[in-house]
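Structure (tokenized):
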């Protein structure tokens, strides 16, 4: 990028303009956590119908437009805490025993959607939850986005 062609550039050390304060865009923050849990997928034609375990990685993207007086959209510390508290409900459990997965199969898809709406409840009104991804293994993930 050639910043000398940027309308904001007024010479060395002289970047200026309201875009530096507002910009008009939005910010996305991403955090990740994990939990260990077993599950079985009744009805699945393969070994996953039997009880087995995964280290599940969960990645969330939140977004918003307005920064606080410190210059943050939302403190990483807060979204990490909220995600961690959510995942504690599932950690070292058999997912098939944890509601609502006692009634629906604990596939990565169902997990991603259920977790999305649970996490969304913890966010303030000016922050939106964009997507939540569940990695069942380092090479397989599902992303839920409303
Ligand atoms: N779309 C989905 N596909 C599968 C899900 C799922 O939740 N959503 N789940 C499974 C099973 O949980 C299975 O444990 C994972 O299967 P797989 O990806 O095949 O993982 P493996 O480690 O057993 O695979 P390798 O063959 O060792 O690579 C299946 N599919």
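Design, position by position:
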């Amino acid at each position: 990028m050639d910043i000398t062609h940027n309308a904001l550039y007024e010479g060395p050390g002289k970047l200026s303009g309201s875009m530096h304060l507002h910009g008009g865009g939005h910010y996305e923050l991403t955090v990740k956590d994990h939990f260990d849990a077993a599950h079985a997928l009744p009805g699945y034609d393969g070994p996953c119908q039997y009880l087995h375990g995964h280290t599940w990685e969960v990645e969330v993207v939140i977004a918003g437009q307005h920064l606080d007086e410190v210059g943050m959209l939302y403190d990483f510390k807060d979204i990490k805490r909220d995600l961690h508290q959510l995942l504690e409900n599932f950690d070292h459990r058999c997912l098939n025993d944890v509601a609502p997965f006692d009634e629906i199969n604990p596939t990565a898809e169902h997990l991603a959607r259920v977790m999305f709406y649970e996490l969304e409840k913890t966010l303030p009104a000016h922050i939106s939850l964009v997507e939540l991804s569940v990695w069942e293994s380092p090479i397989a993930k599902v992303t839920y986005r409303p």
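Reviewer-requested clarification: The chain has a mean pLDDT of 91. Residues 41, 48, 52, 107-109, 136-137, 140 surround LPXRUNBV (CB under 6 Å).
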